[in-house]
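Pipeline run #58 for the internal structure catalog. This entry was flagged by the ingest filter as a single-chain record with no existing model, so it goes straight to prediction. Upstream metadata was stripped on purpose; only the residue string is passed forward. Reviewer on rotation: M.T. Logging verbosity set to normal.
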Amino acid sequence: MEQLVESLNIDLEQERKDILKKYRRLLRTAKPFLKDNDAKLIKKAFYTSVDAHKDMRRRSGEPYIYHPLAVAQIVVEEIGLGTTGIVAALLHDVVEDTDMGIDDIERLFGKKVAKIIDGLTKISGRFEYGSSQQAENFRKMLLTLSDDVRVILVKLADRLHNMRTLDSMPRDKQLKIASETIFIYAPLAHRLGLYSIKSELEELYLKYTEPQEYRAIARKLRETKNTRDRFISKFMEPIAQDLESVGLNFILKGRPKSIYSIWNKMRKQSKPFEEIYDLFAIRIVLESPPESDREKAICWQAYSIVTDHYKPNPDRLKDFLSTPRANGYQSLHSTVMSKSGQWVEVQIRTSRMDEIAEKGYAAHWKYKGNDTKVKGNIETWITQVRETLENGFGDKTAAIEFLDEFRSNLFNEEVFVFTPKGELKVLQAGSTALDFAFDIHSEVGAHCMAAKVGGILVPISYVLNNGDQIEIITSGKQKPNEDWLRIVVTSKARARIKDFLKEENRRYETDGRQLVEKKLKILGVDATAEVMNQLRAFFECKTTTDFFYRIGKGYIPIDDLKRFKRDRDAKEKKAAENGAASNTPPAAGSDGKTLTKYLKQIHGDRADNDMLLIGDDMDKIDYKLAQCCNPIAGDDVFGFVTINEGIKIHRTTCPNAAELMSKHGNRIIKAKWSGKEEAFLAGLYLSGTDRVGLVNDVTRIISNELHINMRGLTIDTKDGVFNGDIKLYVQDTRHLDILIAKLEQVEGVYNVQRFDTNLGGK
């Protein structure tokens, strides 16, 4: 430790001053709500943490105590938690990093803090052990939701600070942590209503995965700030005068959309920054006594004033006042046409609603009396999560399936429907009549035959609309089948259907296992656990249980095991021919660490010997370019170890990258291009105004000026506008960028964009 301090030339005295400065800032921020002995408790937690981490430093070289202090500051300043949250944040790594146990925490700081620390300790780490371990850890984290949501809130603060200090991490770690953040933590912050934290996590993800695009959008936002400010001021002038004339107190906020949301829109709409018009939203925050009878009334009064001056789009009115979102979000959204012919989104809410929108779940406590069981839709959602977690897990793969389903539900909007007696039910958007039946009761769902909506008979696959009143029709003869899993969207319904099917399927699994064991004996193959796993991978089944079930059902003919035997024998023969085991490349299905070790062995003393060199290593290791993103030389890439297809090379911006890095961290290896000249297939999408000679000018640049070979060219014109797809072979991304720049200069060409060639154009 002393050598590290000397090598980094660290001033220990200055560090002590900085630590105390950060601690005093924390106390100043918390001071307004501290009671009785709160300050003493925070002080005790601070010194306990300082002592626990006294010999530890972060990768950046800073004292480790900076991290828990920063997490505690986020917890109080940006999330709005009180003393218990601050103490838990200061101590969140103590049990994991020292000999101090949960019992010691409970004795020193009480049961509540101990319970939160226990929850945080169970979900520590970045899940380096594969997807099933990650899913299981994530499940543990979600189980704490219904006990004390502060576990999740402190964990989000911890993740936010890690993302803010990601600069000191190596590139591969940055990509893994950022991908995990966008895959799970940003959606979770969204669902809990932590809008500011969700937005920052998204922006930081973009900053580290797409640094050039992030900086470009940030620069353009800065350049257009003055124009935006003038527009907002002019737009709000008549509204502000009328609000004042009727005696309404208000604050105007004209904030730009986040860089991530602008980037997302540019990508989805295939438009440049200049063509994204809704770059900002105007917010009117009205002063009103918290939860008074006047809150909704004054919001609608303000809406009336806005629409007196600007014509609203009737299809874009969203009333979250009467039916708040599940996370408690309330606001009135309208899109109106400005005098300059530009659509503007206007959000109207009270100061209480605004605080809940910004700080989410925690802000409820300010108005609900520090009760961690906040009433309303959020509590219903949390209860549903717990039910699904407790009932929907049989094996590790079930945990992975739940992780996928849960994540997909985090960003979903809700649909509001009614029972025959008029009781309001809130389900995720896209839910069907069958989802509704299972939401009422498992038995009602299991025997659901059809439904009536407004007195009209509809099938169980009917998709619910806001305001539907639904009556479920049941039959004792009805029972769930596998097709039902394609009808439902809610995790609760899926879990219940799987439970019902499990009993029926168990017989097929038993029959299948017996058939496989008998056939393997005939083929002379030992029925070991390793062989069973190889069979699962060979027949592309998610689990061995699924494999046995498919055999038992007859979906996989038992004689197909002969193919497996031939394939296995051929691989063993090839391995034997390649020489001793120590010189044989790892088989497909090995993990990233095994491959990295092998790469170091074959690359020797090379500085980056743990990297796969694309081009040089083709003879040594089986890899191929992924079709989902078609990387070309110069793209930022990584290797992903598949189960039975060798290594796939993906772009870091691949649509699947976040999920792969987040869920399968142990199967990621570093990769880079070797620099050898090679031709890569790339696709370009062109659009613009049609004219005589346009195609000739485009092909001349491609073939004559840059000597690029084309594989295909499609141009379609209609009413003076053309759209075209070109597939061509380029050397690397620099070569492609030069081509794009030249094509953009052709008269009539307005837009040139790269697309993934496997998608077949735009």
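catalog note: The mean pLDDT is 79.
catalog note: The first strand starts at residue 250 and ends at 256.
status: ready for reviewer M.T.
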